[in-house]
Amino acid sequence: MFDFQYAIEIFPTILSALRITISATIVGFILAFVLGLVLAMLSRTKVKTIATITNGVIKFIRNTPLLVQLYFIFYVFPSFGLTLSPFVAGVLGLGIHYSTYLSEVFRSGIDAVPVGQWEVGKALNFTQKQTWTRIILPQAVPPIVPVIGNYFITMFKETPLLSAITLVEILQQAKILGANSFSYVEPITIVGILFFVLSYPASLLIKQLENKLNKKYQV
Amino acid sequence: MTEPIVRYNQVSKYFGDLQVLNKIDFDIMPGEKVALIGPSGSGKTTFARLLMTLESLSSGTIQVDGQYLWHEEKDGKLVKASSKHLREVRQNIGMVFQHFHLFPHMTVLENVMEAQVTVKKTPEKEAEKISKDMLDKVGLLEKADVYPAQLSGGQKQRVAIARALVMKPKVMIFDEPTSALDPELVGEVLEIIKEIADEGEMAMLLITHEMDFALEVADRIAFFDGGKIVEQGSPEQMINNPETPRLNEFLSRFNATNSL
Amino acid sequence: MSTLEILGSLLKEGLLVTVSLTFFSAILALVLGFGSGLARMSKSKIIWFIAGTYVELFRGTSLLVQLFFIYFVLPMFGLRMSAMVAAVLAIGLNFGAYTSEVVRSAVQAIDVGQREASVALNMTRQQMMRRIIIPQAFIRMIPNLGNQLIELFKSTSLVSLITLTDLTYQANVLNGSTLETTKIYTLLLLIYFVLAWPLTKGMNVLERKLTEGRF
């Protein structure tokens, strides 16, 4: 049965691993954000070959499991001379995997900006770069902030997969504790509660933000 | 004799197999106000959009202030213009759109300032002063800090005109600037355009269905039909003595709708 | 080992587990998703609360944690089950929660006029849902359900971590016994892609077939 004494005893140990979970989420998210934006822009270029290759890469990554991609980065890269720590490999896998999802989100945001905005960029003689940074992205990004926020939470919940490549985040920490004491009940329950306590309120916040944005952009 | 500010030479445009413009020659003189009229689908909008580089040329050349717009001269030959060259020539052209296309994420003042600062590299203080003066001129200074969503259509279009004007183009395109407006808001916009026209130095290419307005403002009217300029001349001549049956038909249809 | 031998060994041992796991947990997810999605629109506070708790609980935590909980923790309370049952249960429950949201939003997106027309025709609430609302909502759900199915399929790889012998598990075993790391994981990626890609395409075709001439 559930041993509260033991749960209280191991709680600090699990909590200390939360730092790894959260930093993996944040670094992975930054990577996914930047790479997602780049992919979205590349998939829209007028150079057909670049657009086709980009779309192909996105499709491949989206249609294969993150766990296998993590194994690939962690176990296969070293045979090409690229040995990565579990953290770096994990963040790289997480970031690349979700960049393909974010690129889709960015693309929808960009497509929603009226064609006239591109035309006016030309009429006012903006450079391509100025048109993107001053006109298109400032309009494309705010409406998709809630979707991007939800992906942040999704990525947070995916970090336990990084335990499979030996990163000691909270789930791995819980497993280690469980293996030592032969009791998985308390450590895994704590991990479940931690995930819920952090991600549920965050998702409520995002829902609120979404309602606010809906009001702002639809009226 | 002065050189034209814009010269179309044998300009054609295809969308796929569809020919929209058929070998058009056309000059616009500095400061000249030209109105383009004609049925929808006649090619007049495409004609103007080519000048703004919003559509690409199928064949022919366009020159602006003596420079090729879509081409560059290299070793005595005409080659496709680089984007750098395009931007350089494009400085001379401005455009006011049918649907305004204001930047929804910027205030009215920011809308007018934006291109001055980012494109012309005007110092922010100076750009702000120029923009406020211009907003004053179009009668919207008190709306400087408001977002476009809170403006009426007529006000939006006046801001769009101010935004285009502060860039000081030599040629300004007005693409049906009042067609998207409620009838009661058309007047305020036409008034501003007329004011600008009276100042004189900027050439204007005005696509419009407001025939009375075209008469009042334009030095010359060009009638488009089927991808060609079928007839052109002074407003009086065009309205009173149309030479071609097509123009006659077009004008009579107009009078009929107007008298409804 | 040759590439072909590796491929053969991966497919022979793991394919059936991956495919059947996908199949059974997808059915469970669909049933749970429809049940809880409709339950969340129920007028009964109790039903509404139970469905809501289920959905938020499973969406608010990680699939892998849920999998470990069901496989490692539940036995401590006397609920012992095979790895396969635990996997179907975990994946089905997890994706059921996401499907629930798909169902709910599709039903809510149906025009109010459809309800009003049903009332005007004197249908019962049940008739309205079964005959009018759900058939329309279902078509709207197809693209999202398709995406869910792909995500579910990919997530089956997680079961290798509770020693269920799926494709990924076989790859890990093979990797331990041979030194063909590059070949094994490249092939594994390709196998997943080749399985997922027709699924994506198939859903697109289904969507087109169902919406043809209707919207």
TrEMBL record, chain A:
NCBIfam families: ectoine_ehuD, HEQRo_perm_3TM
Span of domain ABC transmembrane type-1: 18-206
Subcellular location(s) of the protein: Cell membrane
Example GO biological process: amino acid transport
Coiled-coil regions listed: none
Family from the record: Belongs to the binding-protein-dependent transport system permease family.
CDD domains assigned: TM_PBP2
Recorded GO CC terms: ATP-binding cassette (ABC) transporter complex
Name of the featured protein: Amino acid ABC transporter membrane protein 2, PAAT family
TM segment ranges: 20-42, 72-98, 188-206
Protein keywords: Amino-acid transport, Cell membrane, Membrane, Transmembrane, Transmembrane helix, Transport
The organism of origin for this protein: Desemzia incerta
Signal peptide feature range: none
One MF term in the entry's GO annotations: transmembrane transporter activity
Listed InterPro entries: AA_ABC_transptr_permease_3TM (IPR010065), ArtM/GltK/GlnP/TcyL/YhdX-like (IPR043429), Ectoine_EhuD (IPR014341), MetI-like (IPR000515), MetI-like_sf (IPR035906)
Keyword Cytoplasm applies: no
Membrane topology term: Multi-pass membrane protein
From TrEMBL, chain B:
Chief location: membrane
Claim: Transcription is one of the keywords in the record: no
Subcellular location(s) of the protein: Cell membrane
PROSITE patterns per the UniProt record, alphabetical: ABC_TRANSPORTER_1, ABC_TRANSPORTER_2
Name by which UniProt lists this protein: Amino acid ABC transporter ATP-binding protein, PAAT family
GO MF terms, alphabetically ordered: ABC-type amino acid transporter activity; ATP binding; ATP hydrolysis activity
UniProt organism field: Desemzia incerta
Gene Ontology CC terms, in alphabetical order: plasma membrane
InterPro entries linked to this entry: AAA+_ATPase, ABC_ATPase_HisP-typ, ABC_transporter-like_ATP-bd, ABC_transporter-like_CS, Ectoine_EhuA, MetN_ABC_transporter-like, P-loop_NTPase
Sequence ranges assigned to domain ABC transporter in this UniProt record: 6-251
NCBIfam families associated with the record: ectoine_ehuA
Keywords assigned by UniProt, alphabetized: Amino-acid transport, ATP-binding, Cell membrane, Membrane, Nucleotide-binding, Transport
SUPFAM superfamilies, per the entry: P-loop containing nucleoside triphosphate hydrolases (SSF52540)
Membrane topology of the entry: Peripheral membrane protein
Segments crossing the lipid bilayer: none
Family: Belongs to the ABC transporter superfamily.
TrEMBL record, chain C:
Residue ranges annotated for the ABC transmembrane type-1 domain, each copy included: 15-196
Protein name (database record): Amino acid ABC transporter membrane protein 1, PAAT family
Membrane topology classification: Multi-pass membrane protein
Similarity comment: Belongs to the binding-protein-dependent transport system permease family.
CDD domains xrefs: TM_PBP2
GO molecular function: transmembrane transporter activity
Species name: Desemzia incerta
GO CC aspect terms: ATP-binding cassette (ABC) transporter complex
Predominant cellular place of this UniProt entry's protein: membrane
One family name in Pfam for this protein: BPD_transp_1
